[in-house]
Amino acid sequence: MKEKSPLNLYKQLPQTNCGKCGEQTCMAFAAGLIARTRKVEECTPLVDEKKYAKKLDALKTIVAPEIRLVYVGTGEKQFKVGGEDVMYRHLMTFFNKPPFAYDVADNMDEAKLVERVKKISTWRKFYIGKWERIEMIAVRSVTGDPAKFASCVKKVQETTDYPLILCSFDPKVLKAGLEVAAKSRPLVYAANKDNWQEVAKLVHEFNVPVVLSAPFDLDALKSMATTFESMGISDLVLDIGTAPNGKKLQESLQNLLKLRRAALEEGQRDIAYPIIALPINAWFTTTDPVRAAYWESVLTATFVIRGAAILVKHSIEPHSVMPDMHLRFNIYTDPRTPVQVKPGLHTVGTVSKESPTFVTTNFALTYYTVESDIGSNNIAARIMSIGTDGIGVQASVAGGQLTPQKIVDSFKEAGFDFASEMAYPSIVLPGMAAKFSGELEDLFGGKVKVLVGPEDSGRIAGWMEQNWPPKK
Ligand code: SF4
Questions:
Q1: DSSP assignment of 292-312, as one string?
Q2: pLDDT beyond 80 at 239
Q3: 231 close to ligand 1 (CB < 6 Angstrom)
Q4: How far apart are CA 417 and CA 263, in angstroms?
Q5: What distance lies between CA 229 and its chain's CA centroid?
Q6: Which numbered atom of ligand 1 lies nearest the CA of 42?
């Protein structure tokens, strides 16, 4: 593995601290390169001045991700696959969450096809301040008929601009799909030991990324990857085989780890590509849809945790999608930065003078839980989120990020005038910050009543019945 320390990157920069990149020092720019908030090209002296040519090449090599970054799709919906640097999230962070691709097939009735594509591409769920979505559509050739496949791909593209995976082992079928969709840069699934020469020609001709498939045979996979690279085809994704259960499932997971270790810890460049997993295979082992959806979800979770870079799935039912979405969200947040909301005064519903004002921290999970517990009970309220660097109430009370003075200052900064804005000038503290109540009333000069709310925001509705409006 390459050493990606700021100092190592700094050595390849001009070290003049000229400020042309917007940073005050080259070291700050180097730190930005590691965090991927800056790009090499933004150091214009390095790019423009010939004397830095060698350094530029060296820097590009160092900052390139350990696992190759593959782009699928075009425009706003384009998705990055792979591009990771570390084996485990806690070693730094993961950068590119693995897209979920849901399948449609070329034997579907047109109305059902359109309905499913619409369902996939409009699926969304608001979770901790962000919309989670399904990202791709996998078009499967079931009929084996190139014309039917082309027509299905065309209909999908007329219905959505989501990136596609074109799935068939028959080069004629793939060609028919690519003639329709190549411009939108679909991922081709797949080249295998029988068809690789014809598929290689296709992906070269249409300039699209391709999956190399050699289930349970890492030597064959490595050999195919080396061959494709030597042909100038390097936008590769690897299919190691996804067994839905039993000993073979264990082998699938072991192979996934072996490949990632080889790429990330041993620096084996010839195998350093993103890996696709097919939890959809759960559907080929049972006719019971509930059981299949359950296993598909379990397989998805297992492969996401192990670092699969793209997953093909079938069940779009909430009980199957939601757990995997939440798991993926949490693994692909940056552990170095807690998920935060903007500090300041927020409102829920149509607030009036009679509405209460709750205090919480700007840790996103806390904030959105409080907001949801208030909104779902039809309570109109203000929520002051205090800037605690995204730390929750209990930890920030203990760690000193949440203090009585900070609460008072936050209301001052928001320009909130309790006397004119509230019929009952007061704030509701989280139960876990109860110890601040006396000091807070002093700091507010006795003009704001400090109420202690519940420790669990799920009890806000019950608390309101007992405590609001406040007694004089
Ligand atoms: S533009 Fe380049 S040389 Fe100038 S400060 Fe930024 S990193 Fe350093």
A1: HHHHHHHHHHHHHHHT-SEEE
A2: yes
A3: no
A4: 58
A5: 29
A6: 1
Cα distance between residue 230 and residue 184, in whole Å = 25
Which residue ranges make up each domain of the chain? Answer: 6-63, 69-331, 344-467
In angstroms, the Cα distances linking 319 to 7, 62, 153, 299, 315 are 47, 42, 28, 14, 9
Q: DSSP label at 287?
A: S
Distance 135 CA to ligand 1 centre (A): 36
The DSSP secondary-structure symbol of 97 reads: P
Model confidence over 257-309: pLDDT tens digits? 999 999 999 989 999 999 999 999 999 888 999 999 999 999 999 999 999 99
CB 346 within 8 A of CB 297: no
| CA–centroid distance, residue 188 to ligand 1 (Å) | 40
**Radius of gyration over alpha carbons of the chain, in Å?**
27
Reported as a single tens digit per residue, the pLDDT across 420-467 is 999 999 999 999 999 999 999 999 999 999 999 999 999 999 999 999
- Choose which residue among 21, 25, 37, 63 to substitute to test ligand 1 binding: the one with the highest number of ligand atoms within 8 A of its C-beta: 21
Going by CA atoms, what residue is nearest to atom 4 of ligand 1? 18
For ligand 1, whether the C-beta of 6 sits within 6 Å is no
**Crossing angle for the helix pair 289-306 and 246-264, nearest 10 degrees?**
20
Average pLDDT over residues 83-90: 91
Q: Give 120 Cα–ligand 1 centroid separation in angstroms.
A: 44
Pick the CATH number of 344-467 from 1.10.30.50, 3.40.1010.10, 3.40.50.11600, 3.40.50.2000: 3.40.50.11600
The pLDDT value given to residue 471: 78
- Which helix (H) or strand (E) element contains residue 396? helix 393-399
Who's near 146: CB < 8 A, 6+ residues apart? 170, 172, 173, 175, 176
Ligand 1 centroid, distance to 41 Cα (angstroms): 10
Classify residue 451 by its DSSP letter: E
Its CATH architecture, for the domain 6-63, is Orthogonal Bundle (1.10)
* Residue 338: CB atoms within 10 Å: 18
CA of 29 to the centre of ligand 1 (A): 7
Contact 348, 375 (CB under 8 A): yes
**Residue among 429, 344, 434, 333 at smallest CA distance from 387:** 344
Tell me the C-alpha distance between 298 and 253, whole Å.
13
Domain 69-331 has CATH 3.30.420.150: no
Is any atom of ligand 1 closer than 6 Å to the C-beta of 178?
no
The whole-angstrom separation of Cα 178 and Cα 183 is 8
Report how far apart the first and last C-alpha atoms of the chain are (Å, whole number).
66
pLDDT tens, 158-175?
Answer: 999 999 999 999 999 999
40 lines ligand 1 (CB under 6 A): no
